[in-house]
Amino acid sequence: MTAKLPAPVTLTGRHIRLEPLERRHCGDLWATVGSDPEVWRWIPVHVPAAEADMGALLDARLAEAAAGESVYFAAVDLASGRAVGVTGYHDFSAENEYLEIGGTWYARSVWRTAVNTEAKLLLLTHAFEDLGMGRVFWKTDARNERSRNAILRLGARFEGVHRRHRLRPDGTWRDSAYFSMLTDEWPAAKSRLVERLSRG
After folding, report:
1. What is the DSSP letter of 157?
2. Does 6 reside within a domain?
3. Angle CA(28)–CA(15)–CA(92) in degrees, nearest 5?
4. What phi and psi values does residue 6 have, to the nearest 5 degrees?
5. CATH code of the domain containing 29
6. Do 106 and 84 form a contact (C-beta atoms < 8 A)?
7. For 72-129, what is each residue's pLDDT tens digit?
8. H or E segment at 121?
9. Taken in order 120, 76, 14, 197, is the CA torsion positive or negative?
10. What is the C-alpha separation between 105 and 41, in angstroms, rounded?
11. Which residues pair with 89 in a beta bridge?
């Protein structure tokens, strides 16, 4: 059976809500994420220096979505009601039953909290169980150990490194580490993620 392509949807958990990214999220994202150099260290964009730069970054994401290339979500913290990050689906194929989860960045205040774990649980559940995907994959800067370890903790498998994969904003070339999870690996990974969230 052919999978379905992702489309804007709202996914709600106990700690966060993933809702379709809109320009109205700009103020929250500038307030919660801002120009923190650690947040942007490995993201292949120019670091926003003002709220207008954050707006331009969101405009670029929204243009991708309008072109059917991506589906972006704002991660809204349910306790505060504020957007604390962005994530999305990319590089998808219904015929070949795969999609990428990426374009992810969060305010440092929610690092090592339930936010990323629950966001990935929501995105993976939707991808495998609602859209019928057979493979979900991630890529990250090969030097980004924090991201690589976070992906592995989801239950993904390391696939290898694409050398000289993309140009960084500073003009150097990035090697990208690739990871994936297959549909038959999802039930065990889901159980681990649910257990991790239940521990707080």
Report:
1. E
2. no
3. 75
4. -70, 150
5. 3.40.630.30
6. yes
7. 999 999 999 999 999 999 999 999 999 999 999 999 999 989 999 999 999 999 999 9
8. helix 114-125
9. positive
10. 10
11. 71, 101
